[in-house]
Amino acid sequence: MTGFAYAAAVVPLLCCSGAVRAAAAIEVSTEFEGGKIGKVERVSETHLRCAVPGEVDQDKRNRQPSWFYFRLEGLGGGELTIDLTDLKGEYNYRPHDGAGLRNMRPVYSYDDRTWHHFETAEWNAAASEIRVRLRPAGPRVWIARQPPYTQRHLQALLAGAGWHPHLRQDVVGESVERRPLLLLTITNPAIADGGKKVIWLMARQHAWESGTSWVAEGAVRFLLSNAPAAAAIRDRFLWKVFPLPDPDGVFRGGVRFNANGYDLNRNWDVTDERLMPEIYHERKAIYDWVDRGGRIDLFLTMHNTEAADFIQGPAELAPLATRFWKLLVDGSAFHQPKAPRSAPSAAGAGRGRLDTPGALFRDRKIPAFLMEQMVDTSPRLSRPPTVEDRLEFGAALVKAICAAVEEP
């Protein structure tokens, strides 16, 4: 991608079977951070059937087959056919036949850095599977659900920022597997915080939703840039960013649950530091800020879904949501033709089902919203969003949020 290059080094990860000899000349590997694929079957030397493993929750329910990321090596010059199988699953305790994935356009890369969408992907409704074809330009190729974003990308971003005078990094706690939960603060420290508006941004509560991490990177890059608009924002605003709330899931190639099987955008009405330390520490950081007198003018948690862009929040926040939505639609490729959605009442959520915005508004009246962005073809782009689109959107998101909270 233009302007950004990441080292190809990866963190070793034992995932599924690690490396599987799928054919005489083709090896399938997931021995890198975020790598994941299930059973691999050989149809021929140039045709593989690769099962998407999915992931289940603490009750062994809600299997969501949303993530795969694997490498093929030993490729020849002929056309390669890959069937991505086992796409049936369950969402919010409702089984599905995988048809929600019918418009999937996975990505491939020859260097694990620059990603391209497959030109076509054929949906087989009878078998609930997707077929992609590729004539490889080299002996190896990486294939993923959407462009991956792992700890190595985040560390490259932070290393590039160095000792930036407007950036502070804090660790608010640890995940189940004792990985740090990072919180970034971006503002101009030379100006007192007392008069500044405060924005909290959260990306990647669900490991498969890597598009949100690219948006967060775009937002951070813009906020730390030398652009006059960014400097003005740092003077007037204080930003708090959770860049990777589920580091364990990202590391193992997970979907939406932590290492103990709990959905990290549900269960915000449950306090359990042992089973859900991610929620415990992130929520504590937010509530401690508010309880010490800190303001929050807008909180946004970002997510990916297959085929919809939308903003959702409590009905009581409709005026702010509407301003934010209009600014985002006018200033970016965000595609939500109708007004923001009203979230279900937090009072009606069962124990363990309350999402982040619902809990924050219920407990502290924080103006909190959820934003979904599609990974399939966007009507405004006429193609699936790319890494460059996500980075650009990050800057547009910052501007829209700031304008929304500054309007009367």
Fold and architecture overview:
The protein has 408 residues and is α+β, with helices and mostly antiparallel strands. The chain has two domains: 19-144, Immunoglobulin-like; 151-406, 3-Layer(aba) Sandwich (Aminopeptidase), CATH 3.40.630.10. It contains eight helices and 21 strands. The protein has helices at residues 151-161, 210-223, 228-236, 247-252, 277-291, 318-331, 356-364, 387-406, and strands at 19-21, 27-29, 40-44, 47-51, 69-73, 80-85, 89-91, 94-96, 107-109, 116-117, 122-124, 129-134, 140-144, 167-174, 180-186, 197-203, 237-242, 298-305, 310-313, 341-342, 368-374. The strands form four sheets. Strands 14-15-17-16-18-21-19-20 form an eight-stranded mixed sheet, sandwiched between helices. The longest helix is centred in the C-terminal third of the chain and has 20 residues, at 387-406. The relative contact order is 0.13.
What fold name goes in the CATH topology slot of the largest domain?
A: Aminopeptidase
Low-confidence blocks of residues: 1-17
Question: Shape from CA axes?
Answer: globular
Strand content: 15-25%
CATH level-two architecture of the largest domain: 3-Layer(aba) Sandwich
Topology:
Blueprint: E1 19-21, E2 27-29, E3 40-44, E4 47-51, E5 69-73, E6 80-85, E7 89-91, E8 94-96, E9 107-109, E10 116-117, E11 122-124, E12 129-134, E13 140-144, H1 151-161, E14 167-174, E15 180-186, E16 197-203, H2 210-223, H3 228-236, E17 237-242, H4 247-252, H5 277-291, E18 298-305, E19 310-313, H6 318-331, E20 341-342, H7 356-364, E21 368-374, H8 387-406
Parallel strand pairs: 4-6, 16-17, 16-18, 18-21, 19-20
Antiparallel strand pairs: 1-2, 2-5, 3-4, 5-13, 6-12, 7-8, 9-10, 9-13, 11-12, 14-15, 15-17, 19-21
